Amino acid sequence: MIAVGDGIAQWVCAAANVQFTPGMPALGCIVDGVPVAGVVYTDYTGTSIGIHSRCDDRKKITREFFWAIFDYPFNQLGVKRLTGLVSTANLEAQRVDEHLGFVEEARLAGYFADGDAIIYRMWKEDCRWLALTPRYRKVKETT
Asked: Which residues of the chain carry a pLDDT beneath 70?
């Protein structure tokens, strides 16, 4: 199940080192009533938005959730790019971002307490998850 709201946003922010703001956009993947993954979006400019994530059990994330986290910014908000920051010390997050299709754009020296920041970006035209739109848009509209 996909959930939205402040509860998911607070849960993600607590692990992603992001300042929680009531009403911030967030999506969560819920399995058996427990959040297993989630994202929050920040710094919306009209053409770009930042994305921050938390994942406690990657084996339980659904393809529908992956589609939803890209559908919201690209199709509903109409942005052209997603931007994420990952510490060079967080090898798992780097692996996941690259597997999802994010590309390293630059690095910021000393940005995090545990290392530099890798700036990852994804352009809408490079997002392979949007190919699932016909399958999941229909599900979303009927639920």
From this structure: 138-143
